[in-house]
Design the sequence.
């Protein structure tokens, strides 16, 4: 029996130890002592389930002692192996193909293990191993070394484990005798070995990699440990730091073999109750991130050749390694920075299924809870935390590729360790195939699901964290997977709340601090997103881009083979809302848009999504985004967009945008400073067009659009609605395509319907029965429910086009198409062309200029003096100094890859041609079915007979102008040489437009109600029964006599006037006077608005105050001269009065002042006459003595005014 035991022990030691012989096995009673032994790295690699990219380069033991049981108990008691020290070195393989041959000799040692499960195997499986100290050194390769640049190297990890114990147990992880432990395998069809691993203490030290000394940015620590870079980061030399200490834990190991003793499965489950890192320095955190990144690259490298990795026959075809940590606490402490990270129930598992040639790896990461706090700020704040709302779902959504991935290895799954929480906060599933297969098979598929999360954005913390990520997570292209591989990524988060606090006093914008109302009302913003998702996969089905109808994207059609030259992305959210956080002072009054939590809803988007698709031109892997010379398609869509904002809220959002822009620039600068620089052979020195895609299209589609502009108020932060903009079915698309020596840029804009409603500013309006419909509150009309009444001033008449199939298709009110062809070379200037086609249909305009002027004053755009209002001036100053000022600054076109010479001898350019006037212009603008309603106070009073939704029929109650079509065409005429067929070469025309055609059809001016040919249907919509009106068409051509002049001369070549039906004009004197009064009011308002615009542009001095005065009194100077009887009584004929402005087109300020004084004198005389008549009438009544005294006093004041006017005339 002793000889059998000795042979079994020799057989086992030969498998595990290098160069072991029978002579070394010397029994001293029941003890065998050995020393300085080298362990077989491949056998240890297979038994530990290490990834194939890692290689055990050193495994050495110091004192090796074997304690044998009594011979009679050898089947029951285990053999105990005691090791005082075990030194291991794990290195990432640099050349995976070369490492397979070095250890191929050792694989033959275990070839006989598959012959059956014998005595030696039972003795080996039942051994108990005790190790006093385990020293493990882990070295990963990190990123790919770039020639000519500093090496990026991950630090080394030194892991020390003390008092490690590995023993054999039963299926319930209880230590029993070996005979009971082997009973579970009876009649199971498999051989199961259950082992339990325990350790008393584990510590991890991060050590500097030797290549770190070559990094100039890290090797400058001699300047002092407090030295910081420009971005505020402390990147001193990392000399080593202890990361974890005193971590205890245990592991359950399950080994599954066939009945013939062939390895089948290995499962290792590690459980750690808590991992605490109380103090980690800032350089230590950067080193830790580099180490984790290097470890990630090592575990997921796709260039592993499994045929060259046949290390040992003990390597199982199925393996599962999982690590469960109940609590993790990490504290980063620095003199000026401190972060605390708390994780609950972290589970990491990695399952591998291999057939010897291809390995499928499934990685699963689950986090039960996550808290990230900034304890340095005052007060301390939580940056990341789970949402306060309870999670309703009880199950975790598992992707299809992760279901039934690997048959269970441990037979009793209920006894495994699980997460302590019900639903994990973050769940990641990733499937990877090694080696990376060729398309169309996917090399990796990743799905990340996240429960509701809350993020608090703080500037200092974000900058420091971004600096950590930029330094630590540096993965070069091709480090993990080769360029030809196909990858898929899906990210889903149910809810995301991002809170951004904003201190107005700390902004760089000087105008922001002056806006005291916004500073006192709002303290920050909150972004709420529901059902946020992001997907990246070449097999995605994109519905927005409509690729099936795009010939340029034929390789992206459904059914076409997919490869690495294609990329598709999609992202979206079911609901996205931006809310402003109100301060304690402004939360007293809550309304429909202010939530109970003190948030004011500013912007809301529903079902917003974005899609993108790209493909290279030559079929090569797509590594640069966007691909040079490739095809790019981008689509943005939104089902509904809602906005509620006032001036103060808009300024606050702009300040918030400026804040994000400034922080974003700082973060981008950190990323650029740490990004590996391209060396010379990687950069191309070609033209600009060689660096951009050759075919690009970007589209925007909005189903419903509603914008509400609110009135500023110091009492209510929401204010009253002043303007409401409603739109439906907006589609906009911009595309460019390279055509050999030119580029064609096309734009398409389609808009189905639009409506603009403005606040009603009239007085009380009365129904026909005399009941009051509205009241006046603060200058605006308020309905009976307390909401301000809105008036539609711009809307679209519903039109439909009947097709042959009988389906009525709606006609968009706006349809614009623009095509611009720009040549690259100077010699192709004649190819520079511009084509514009626009059609605007069904426009209805109501209200008039007088109402528009009232609104401008109401909005604060115009002040009491007619100039720009205080709010407008403040807003323009804010915009000029704010973030939007950068959008309007011109910048020269600069491309780093272009040379200094922009043109060569053959006339080809390195960049764009200097844009000049196009050689050929073809413009066609058509306005269809337009109507202008001239509404005054009387018309508005009558309008309330219609209900709110029937504003489309209100034009019948007022004077209005309508036309069927207004067409404007501008194009270049055909040269006469081509018309005559001579074919002679002609010189390039100086002007691109030589012919302009202007035509109008169906022009009508209709008075209120009862007009012939006009009827109102039951729903109040106007219907045109008979087609009439005036038709006018004019052809204007450029005169050929003064072609060399700077200003061309235009002549009318053809004028055509026609009517389809006889014109009937019936108008009474009262109607004509009322129309003149309306026109006078409209012209006055138009002039005052024009004067206000000139004052806004600060053109008073250039055009003179006289012109401003004339514009402000434009209607009084024209219409009063036509209908004033005083003017006719002075001997002037009606013709001279009506056309007096033509005889004296330019009036001096002297004549204008005299005219004003004369008008004032006439008004005073008329008032005096009326007062005299009233005095006479009231004197006869005895009960009106009090009123008589007041009227006499008024008459005396008018008399004094008359005297003053006479003195003023004398001075003039």
Sequence:
């Amino acid at each position: 029996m002793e000889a059998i035991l000795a042979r079994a022990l020799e057989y086992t030691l030969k498998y595990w130890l290098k160069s072991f012989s029978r002579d070394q096995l010397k029994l001293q009673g029941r003890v065998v002592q050995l020393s300085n032994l080298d362990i077989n790295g491949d056998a240890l690699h297979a038994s530990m389930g290490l990834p194939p990219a890692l290689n055990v380069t050193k495994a050495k033991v110091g004192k090796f002692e074997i304690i044998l049981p009594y011979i009679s108990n050898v089947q029951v008691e285990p053999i105990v192996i005691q090791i005082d020290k075990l030194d291991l070195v794990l290195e990432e393989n640099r050349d995976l193909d070369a490492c397979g041959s070095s250890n191929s000799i050792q694989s033959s040692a275990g070839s006989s293990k598959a012959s059956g499960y014998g005595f030696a195997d039972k003795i080996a499986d039942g051994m108990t191993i005790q190790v006093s100290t385990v020293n493990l050194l882990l070295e990963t390769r990190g990123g790919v070394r770039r020639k000519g640049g500093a090496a990026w190297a991950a630090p080394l990890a030194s892991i020390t484990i003390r008092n490690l114990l590995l023993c054999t147990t039963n299926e319930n992880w209880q230590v029993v005798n070996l005979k009971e432990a082997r009973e579970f395998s009876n009649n199971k069809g498999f051989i199961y070995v259950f082992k339990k691993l325990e350790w008393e203490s584990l510590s991890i030290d991060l050590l500097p990699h030797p290549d770190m000394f070559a990094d100039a940015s890290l090797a400058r620590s001699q300047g002092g440990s407090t030295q910081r870079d420009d971005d505020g980061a402390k990147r001193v030399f990392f000399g080593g730091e202890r990361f974890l200490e005193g971590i205890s834990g245990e592991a359950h190991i399950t080994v599954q073999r066939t009945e013939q003793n062939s390895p089948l499965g290995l499962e290792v489950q590690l459980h750690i109750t808590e991992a605490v890192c109380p103090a980690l320095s800032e350089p230590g955190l950067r080193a830790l991130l580099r180490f984790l990144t290097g470890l990630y690259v090592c575990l997921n490298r796709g260039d592993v050749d499994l045929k060259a990795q046949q290390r040992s026959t003990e390597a199982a075809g199925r393996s599962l390694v999982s690590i469960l940590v109940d609590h993790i606490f990490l504290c980063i402490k620095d003199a000026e920075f401190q972060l605390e990270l708390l994780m609950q129930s972290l589970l990491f598992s990695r399952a591998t299924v291999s057939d010897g040639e291809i390995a499928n790896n499934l990685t699963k990461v689950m986090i039960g809870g996550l808290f990230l706090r900034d304890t340095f700020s005052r007060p301390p704040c939580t940056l990341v935390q789970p949402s306060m709302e309870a999670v309703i779902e009880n199950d975790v959504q598992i992707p299809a590729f992760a279901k039934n991935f690997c048959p269970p290895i441990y037979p009793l799954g209920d006894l495994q360790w699980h997460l302590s929480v019900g639903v994990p906060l973050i769940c990641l599933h990733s499937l990877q195939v090694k080696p990376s297969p060729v398309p169309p098979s996917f090399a990796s598929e990743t799905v990340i699901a996240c429960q509701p999360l809350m993020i608090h954005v703080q500037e200092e913390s974000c900058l420091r964290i971004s600096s950590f990520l930029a330094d630590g997570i540096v993965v070069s292209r091709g480090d993990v997977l080769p360029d030809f591989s196909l990858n898929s990524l899906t990210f889903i988060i149910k809810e995301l709340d991002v809170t951004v606090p904003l201190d107005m006093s700390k902004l760089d914008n000087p105008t922001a601090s002056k806006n005291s109302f916004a500073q006192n009302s709002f303290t920050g913003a909150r972004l709420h997103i529901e059902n946020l998702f992001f997907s990246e996969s070449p097999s995605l089905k994109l519905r927005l881009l409509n690729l099936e109808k795009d010939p340029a994207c034929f390789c992206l059609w459904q059914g076409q083979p997919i490869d690495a030259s294609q990329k598709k992305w999609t992202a979206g959210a079911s609901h996205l809302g931006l809310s402003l956080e109100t301060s304690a002072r402004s939360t007293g009054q809550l309304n429909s848009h202010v939530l109970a939590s003190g948030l004011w809803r500013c912007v809301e988007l529903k079902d917003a999504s974005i899609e993108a698709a790209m493909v290279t031109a030559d079929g090569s892997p797509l590594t640069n985004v966007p691909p040079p010379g490739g095809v790019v398609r981008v689509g943005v869509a939104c089902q509904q967009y809602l906005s509620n904002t006032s001036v103060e809220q808009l300024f606050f959002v702009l300040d918030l945008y400026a804040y994000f822009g400034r922080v974003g620039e700082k973060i981008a600068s950190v990323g650029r400073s740490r990004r590996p620089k391209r060396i010379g052979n990687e950069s191309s020195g070609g033209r600009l067009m060689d660096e951009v895609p050759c075919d690009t299209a970007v589209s925007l589609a909005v189903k419903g659009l509603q914008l509400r502009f609110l009135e500023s108020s110091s009492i209510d932060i929401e204010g009253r609605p002043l303007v409401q903009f409603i739109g439906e079915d907006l589609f906009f698309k911009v595309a460019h395509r390279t055509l050999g020596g030119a580029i064609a840029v096309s734009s398409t804009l389609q808009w189905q319907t639009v409506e603009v409603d403005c606040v009603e500013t009239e007085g009380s309006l009365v129904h026909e029965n005399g009941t009051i419909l509205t009241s006046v509150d603060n200058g605006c009309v308020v309905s009976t429910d307390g909401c301000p009444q809105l008036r539609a001033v711009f809307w679209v008449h519903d039109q439909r086009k009947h097709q042959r199939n009988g389906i009525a298709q709606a006609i968009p009110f706006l349809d614009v198409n623009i095509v611009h062809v720009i040549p690259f070379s100077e010699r192709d200037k004649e190819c520079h062309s511009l084509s514009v086609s626009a059609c605007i249909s069904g426009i209805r305009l109501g209200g008039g200029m007088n109402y528009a002027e009232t609104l401008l004053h109401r909005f604060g755009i115009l002040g009491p003096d007619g100039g720009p209002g205080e709010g407008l001036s403040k807003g323009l100053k804010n915009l000029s100094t704010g973030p939007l000022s950068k959008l309007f600054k011109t910048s020269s076109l600069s491309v780093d890859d272009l040379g200094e010479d922009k043109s060569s001898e053959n006339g080809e350019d390195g960049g764009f041609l200097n844009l000049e006037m196009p050689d050929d212009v073809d413009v066609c603008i058509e306005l269809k079915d337009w109507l202008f309603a001239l509404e005054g106070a009387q018309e508005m009073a009558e309008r309330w007979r219609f209900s709110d939704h029937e504003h489309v029929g209100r034009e019948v109650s007022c004077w209005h102008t309508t036309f069927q079509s207004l067409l404007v065409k501008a194009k270049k005429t055909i040269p006469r040489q081509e018309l005559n067929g001579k074919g002679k070469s002609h010189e390039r025309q100086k002007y691109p437009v030589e012919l302009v055609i202007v035509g109008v059809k169906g022009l009508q001016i209709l008075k209120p109600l009862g007009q012939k040919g006009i009827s109102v249907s039951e729903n109040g919509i106007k219907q045109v029964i008979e087609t009439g009106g005036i038709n006018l068409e004019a052809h204007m051509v450029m005169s050929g006599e003064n072609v060399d002049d700077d200003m061309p001369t235009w002549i009318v070549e053809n004028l055509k006037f026609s009517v389809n039906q006889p014109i009937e004009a019936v108008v009474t004197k009262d109607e004509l006077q009322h129309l003149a009064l309306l026109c006078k009011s409209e012209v006055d308002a138009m002039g005052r608005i024009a004067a206000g615009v000139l004052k806004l542009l600060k053109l008073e001095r250039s055009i003179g105050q006289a012109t401003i005065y004339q514009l402000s009194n434009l209607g009084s100077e024209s219409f009063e001269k036509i209908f004033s009887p005083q003017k006719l009584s002075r001997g002037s004929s009606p013709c001279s009065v009506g056309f007096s402005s033509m005889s004296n087109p330019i009036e001096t300020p002297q004549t204008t002042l005299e005219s004003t004084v004369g008008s004032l004198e006439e008004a005073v005389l008329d008032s005096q006459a009326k007062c005299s008549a009233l005095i006479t009438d009231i004197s006869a009544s005895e009960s009106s003595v009090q009123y008589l005294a007041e009227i006499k006093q008024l008459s005396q004041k008018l008399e004094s005014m008359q005297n003053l006017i006479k003195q003023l005339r004398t001075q003039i």
Q: What stands out?
A: The mean pLDDT is 76.
